[in-house]
Amino acid sequence: MSADRGRQLHAQLAELCARLGRRVQVMEVCGTHTVAIFRSGIRALLPENLRLVSGPGCPVCVTAQRHIDAAIDLAARPDVVIATYGDMMRVPGRRGSLEKLRAVGARVRVVNSARRALQVAQEHPADSVVFLAVGFETTAPATAATLLEAAESDVKNFAVLMAHKLVVPAMLALLEAGDVPLDGFLCPGHVSVIIGSEAYRPVVERHQRACVVAGFEPEPIMRGLVALVRQLVEGRAELENAYSAAVQPVGNRVALELLERVFTPADTPWRELGVIPQSGLELRPAYQRFDALARFGLELGQDEDHPGCRCGDVIQGKAEPADCPLFGQPCTPLDPIGPCMVSSEGTCAAWYKYHLPAVDRTASDTQSVQP
Questions:
Q1: 93 forms bridges with which residues in the sheet?
Q2: Which residues are within 8 A (CB) of 292 and not within 5 positions of it... i.e. 6 or more apart?
Q3: CATH topology of domain 3-56+168-241
Q4: Digit-coded pLDDT (tens) for 236-250
Q5: In contact, 186 and 224? CB cutoff 8 Å
Q6: Where in the chain is the domain with CATH 3.40.50.11750?
Q7: Superfamily covering domain 60-165+252-295
């Protein structure tokens, strides 16, 4: 974004907020938006009456504790190899983390895709390989395609621990809870490429909240915020797609057909949000033989989050990281207590890296590595 364009957008946003004459609260749903907003310094440009709050858009942060514990239980078995995305390695569970378990001999493999996890299973037919399937609609189609391949190739030593989430049901659940006043949503770009901009129509029609789909660079984010506040000034609550170069109204039909073929919506637990109806994905009957819980006779337990961690409040927009008594000391990226400090898309990690004063960050890092 050029300096001139940045000044123009800042002036438009300031003028619209002044015309509105009241406090405005907008939720950026996506963790990538959260990091981009911090990194680019956009927060410093916001008018005083415009506040951005983070939402449940970080896949690591919203994965329920019970799924982390199940993955750790599986990893502790000598006959199981866990394949996972790297940002899940350090999420704490009741028995430590996958990273700590690997350090004492557990077979945990970091993979960059579900298909790579399947390849590990094919390369090691004597091992049972379980892929930790986390993420939103962005990553779920790749899991679906991998399961189709596993079924067609009759791979018997591959399974998935299902923890995929759906974005729109979580947005609706936040509004229905009514705990956080929101004027609108800056909707995620990556997920919207898959599900399409029209997927947010229920948010607008049921709750009269403005929704604007935006890209991830500073200029698209600012344009999205301008569009949101303009709606409020004009007394509208509409769905706008400010990312039409990548997002179509109906989304990616091929990806959506994959999801429909392999999965069905199901009630699923979210960290601190509880069970949200029809907000997750489960395997259809034809693919249930790949379900890790059923294969290994596991049942999901209850969530037992750290009593002092406010990650759950942060991902609901109820609190900022600095409101958590653990933030910065003792909870740091080097020694995280909650998942919001683990993930590169976590609000606490972004706040720590870009917002916490350097002197405080240095002191916290020093304390976190003391013996």
A1: 96
A2: 70, 74, 130, 159, 160, 161, 162, 298
A3: Rossmann fold (3.40.50)
A4: 999 999 999 999 999
A5: yes
A6: 3-56+168-241
A7: HypD, alpha/beta domain 2 (3.40.50.11740)
**Burial status of residue 103 (CB atoms within 10 A of its CB: 0-12, 13-18, 19 or more):** exposed
Question: What average pLDDT does the structure give for the chain?
Answer: 91
Across the range 273-290, mean pLDDT stands at 96
Check: CB of residue 135 under 8 Å from CB of residue 164.
yes
Residues pairing with 159 in the sheet = 130
Residues of the chain with CATH 3.40.50.11740: 60-165+252-295
Coil, strand or helix at 265: strand
**Confidence (pTM):** 0.91
In this structure, what token pair is assigned to residue 182? 């929101």
Average the pLDDT over 273-302 and give the result.
95
Query: Residue 364: exposed, middle, or buried by beta-carbon count in 10 A (0-12, 13-18, 19+)?
Result: buried
pLDDT digits (tens, 9 = 90+) for 217-234: 999 999 999 999 999 999
